[in-house]
């Protein structure tokens, strides 16, 4: 792997290529494509969390003018088994969670489909659900492997001995609630079959994966399936794999022999689009009288569904941020009568860092140490498994942030600073996220008029992927950006990895770089520097390049600083200002990078103060399944957020030297807010969100 040395376009702040299309409403999302003859599907959701369907009465629906079909498990085409049983829609009478789809009505208009769905009666034998996560649930077990392939348990040294020997100790349990992604575009699909081929416009972060999944489900050769996702209105992980809506639309289209559109109503996005599992995390920290950590214990509990095992990797963050000689990190999960959880922006690291970075703040208070200095004192050049970091500039982020934020002037005493009726406080937390690169393919073509067409099946979910990939291509080709046409969002281009795990730019960019370098070389070596009239085309695959890399712990790091004010009479918390300082390798495009980080930080503040999905224990239903009841931060909640980058050169990543940024910004953000609330009030909030109801009874008047 050779780094791209001469960079003209990489590093330049540029606006999104498709910005005009989007703001003028010309960009087409999954359900926007005008397909002649398309009809519409509306799902019927189970109104219970556990049971078995005995009958679906469809006559009333079928009697409605315009209703074409009512599909359910007794009449649906059979699907082939796949890894994710949640995708085996309408195949079985068993219901595993409230809101699982039990029938689908297809009609000539969306209104008639909805009316039809309301006319369907579902009969079932129903049992009371077990849907609430608790630390003493008898079903808790310890999976060997948790998400992202991590070992569920990692110990080193002797935690109990180290903890017992520590001069200063913290032992606290933190809770995070169920949270939902609420991307602007709901999960939506347009599907049609033509001569045995399946074409799908899907709201997905991973059209290559969706293609493979659909091919497997319908028993087709993958070449017979094509998935388009030219524009995607946000995902945050909820569109990381094929979702039930995708399969339902394809199934319905097959049943009625016409194109079908299915856009989930918001309430169904809450059950079918996945969510972030609630967590219960016990963190134990022990430090010597000098502030050096002697022991970290991080034990995380989360939930999964009865359909699939999903084990959120919350404790892995404690294997990365600091490196005490004694460590224990464990995960336990319990399968409940709930919808399957899924990845949500920085899965693992985000809830994990809320717990760890709150506990570090508690340790600082207990030991009388400054929380910035305490973190710096515990820096490490290796992770808990002994791997060296490919690069790590957490200390620089903390120092730069402290200086810009004015941390030195901080009076550490809690509840000491007032402005009128407000109590003021500041907080800090560390952030990290793995710098992942996954194999992908790309193609590049030169035409005789010095024009280049570069294609990679990236998904631009609002991140600016298209834009940065064109910058990368132009540098790899050594040409002006205006000469490069970049194509993304179509599985027919060839396999490329998901827009997830913050791996997009690094993974797709490497494939693009490789293809462009090959193309240059081909033009020079084979064609003597002149593109022949028929053009030159190449394809590249980074599988072997990535497999051949050395073993390093690769992560991006950052430091979050924030200032809050708390109204002691109402318990209201307002964010005053926030600063994130990040070391994320080479920044390909400062505009889109900053936007990703501000977005992550905003979502972190939202997590700290507002977001929670409430589940009704009697029914197992999410009762806050709309944007009126599920609160997310809006403009009025977010004042100034500043983002700064610490320069970082890392030769062990990819040819761009880039690390992912999409998730880093949310990590630690909620802890920084909670730590600032403590500083303002003297009240330690160990469960999120920090609502007035939680805070008010505890705040000093
Ligand atoms: Mo992200 S949760 O990996 O889409």
Ions, cofactors and other ligands present here are: dioxothiomolybdenum(VI) ion
Taking pLDDT < 50 over at least 5 consecutive residues as the criterion, the unreliable ranges are none
Mass-distribution shape = globular
Q: DSSP helix count?
A: 16
Q: Compute the separation of the termini in Å.
A: 61 Å
Order of strands, widest sheet: 3-5-1-12-9-10-11
Average pLDDT, all residues: 97
Helix content: 10-25%
Radius of gyration: 26 Å
Record field, number of beta strands: 26
Percent of residues in beta strands? 15-25%
Helix/strand layout:
Blueprint: H1 19-23, E1 39-45, E2 51-57, H2 59-62, E3 67-72, E4 94-95, E5 101-107, H3 110-119, E6 121-126, E7 154-156, H4 159-165, E8 168-176, E9 188-194, E10 197-202, H5 207-217, E11 225-228, H6 244-256, E12 260-263, H7 266-272, E13 279-287, E14 293-305, E15 326-336, H8 349-367, H9 371-377, H10 394-405, E16 418-419, E17 422-434, E18 441-447, E19 451-456, H11 465-477, E20 484-487, H12 504-527, E21 536-541, H13 543-547, E22 555-566, E23 573-583, H14 590-609, E24 615-616, E25 621-622, E26 640-645, H15 669-681, H16 692-695
Parallel strand pairs: 1-12, 10-11, 14-15, 19-20, 23-26
Antiparallel strand pairs: 1-5, 2-4, 2-6, 3-5, 7-15, 8-13, 9-10, 9-12, 13-14, 16-17, 17-22, 18-19, 18-21, 22-23, 24-25
The structure holds dioxothiomolybdenum(VI) ion (MOS).
């Amino acid at each position: 792997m050779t780094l791209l040395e001469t960079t003209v376009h990489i590093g330049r702040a540029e606006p999104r290529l498709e910005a005009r299309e989007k703001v003028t409403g010309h960009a087409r999302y999954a359900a926007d494509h005008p397909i002649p003859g398309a009809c519409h599907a509306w799902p019927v959701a189970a109104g219970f969390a556990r049971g078995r369907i005995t009958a679906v009465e469809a006559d009333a629906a079928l009697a409605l003018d315009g209703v074409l079909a009512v599909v359910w498990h007794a009449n649906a085409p059979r699907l082939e088994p796949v890894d994710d049983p949640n995708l085996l829609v309408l195949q079985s009478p068993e219901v595993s969670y409230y809101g699982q789809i039990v029938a689908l009505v297809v009609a000539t208009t969306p209104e008639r489909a909805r009316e039809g769905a309301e006319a369907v009666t579902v009969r079932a034998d129903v049992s009371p659900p077990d849907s609430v996560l608790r630390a003493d649930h008898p079903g808790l077990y310890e999976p060997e492997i948790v998400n992202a392939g991590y070992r569920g348990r990692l110990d080193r040294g002797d935690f109990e001995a180290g903890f017992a020997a520590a001069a200063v100790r913290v032992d606290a349990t933190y809770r995070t609630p169920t949270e939902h992604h609420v991307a602007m575009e709901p999960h939506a699909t347009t599907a049609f079959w033509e001569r045995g081929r399946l074409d799908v416009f899907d709201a997905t972060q991973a059209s290559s994966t969706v293609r493979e999944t659909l091919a497997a489900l319908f028993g087709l050769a993958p070449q017979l399936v094509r998935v388009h996702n030219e524009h995607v209105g946000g995902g945050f992980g909820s569109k990381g794999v094929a979702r039930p809506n995708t399969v339902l639309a394809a199934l319905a289209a097959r049943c009625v022999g016409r194109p079908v559109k299915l856009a989930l109503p918001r309430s169904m996005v809450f059950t079918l689009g996945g969510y972030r599992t609630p967590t219960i995390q016990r963190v134990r920290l022990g430090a010597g009288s000098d502030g050096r950590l002697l022991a970290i214990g991080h034990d995380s509990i989360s939930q999964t569904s009865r359909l699939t095992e999903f084990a959120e990797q919350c404790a892995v963050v404690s294997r990365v941020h600091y490196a005490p000689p004694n460590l224990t990190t464990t995960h336990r999960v319990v399968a409940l009568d709930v919808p399957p959880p899924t990845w949500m922006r920085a899965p693992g690291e985000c809830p994990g860092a809320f717990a760890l970075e709150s506990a570090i703040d508690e340790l600082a208070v207990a030991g009388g140490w400054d929380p910035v200095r305490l973190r710096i004192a515990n820096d490490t050049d290796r992770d808990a498994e002994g791997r060296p970091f490919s690069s790590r500039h957490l200390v620089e982020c903390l120092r730069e942030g402290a200086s810009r934020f004015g941390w030195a002037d901080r009076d550490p005493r809690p509840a000491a600073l007032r402005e009128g009726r407000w109590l003021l406080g500041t907080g800090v937390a560390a952030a990290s996220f793995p710098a992942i690169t996954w194999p992908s393919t790309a193609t590049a073509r030169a035409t005789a008029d010095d024009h280049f067409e570069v294609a990679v099946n990236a998904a631009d979910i609002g991140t600016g992927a298209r834009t940065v990939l064109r910058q990368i291509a132009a540098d790899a080709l050594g040409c002006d950006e205006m000469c490069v046409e970049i194509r993304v969002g179509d599985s027919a281009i060839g396999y490329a990895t998901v827009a997830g795990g913050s791996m997009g730019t690094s993974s797709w960019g490497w494939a693009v770089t490789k293809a462009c370098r090959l193309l240059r070389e081909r033009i020079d070596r084979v064609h003597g520097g002149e593109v022949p009239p028929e053009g030159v085309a190449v394809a590249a695959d980074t599988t072997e390049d990535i497999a051949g890399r050395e073993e390093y712990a690769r992560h991006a790091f950052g430091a979050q600083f924030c200032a809050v004010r708390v109204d002691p009479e109402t318990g209201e918390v307002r964010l005053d200002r926030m600063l994130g300082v990040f070391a994320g390798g080479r920044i390909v495009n400062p505009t889109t990078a900053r936007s990703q980080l501000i977005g992550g930080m905003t979502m972190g503040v939202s997590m700290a103060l507002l977001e929670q999905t409430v589940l009704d224990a009697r029914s197992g239903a999410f009762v806050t399944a709309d944007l009126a009841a599920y609160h997310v931060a809006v403009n009025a909640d977010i004042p100034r957020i500043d983002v700064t980058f610490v320069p970082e050169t890392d030769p062990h990543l990819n040819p761009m030297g880039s690390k992912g940024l999409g998730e880093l910004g949310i990590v630690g953000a909620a802890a920084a807010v909670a730590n600032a609330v403590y500083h303002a009030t003297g009240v330690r909030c160990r469960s999120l969100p920090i609502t007035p109801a939680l805070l008010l009874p505890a705040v000093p008047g």
